[in-house]
Amino acid sequence: MTEHSGHPDRVIDNAIMLVVPGAMDAGLTSWLFWGALAVAFAVAFVVTVPVNRWLIARGKGHAVVHKFHH
């Protein structure tokens, strides 16, 4: 059994950073980079919280599957 609940947030973060024009080329001191990253995190949070709640309610949360990592 593998745990995949952490992957959708990374996909959403990367997709938004790619969609926002210039975000990937912006430097670390640019408001564009940090603004796009903040929006990406907010969207990922809104999408993944219900998914994680659903997994936990069914006994398939991240902590439960840790026993399979060792």
What's the short version?
It contains three helices and no strands. The chain is mostly helical.
Annotation field: number of helices = 3
Shape assignment: elongated
Helix content: 55-70%
Quaternary organisation of the protein chains: single chain
Class computed from helices, strands and strand pairing: mainly alpha
C-alpha-based Rg, rounded: 15 Å
Number of strands: 0
- Main sheet makeup: none
Description:
The protein has 70 residues and is mainly alpha-helical. Helices cover 63% and strands 0% of the residues. The protein has 3 helices and no strands. The chain has helices at 7-19, 31-57, 62-65. α1 (7-19) runs antiparallel to α2 (31-57). The longest helix is centred in the middle third of the chain and has 27 residues, at 31-57. It is elongated, with a radius of gyration of 15 Å. The termini are close together.
Notable characteristics:
70 residues
SSE topology sketch:
Blueprint: H1 7-19, H2 31-57, H3 62-65
Helix pairs in contact: 1-2
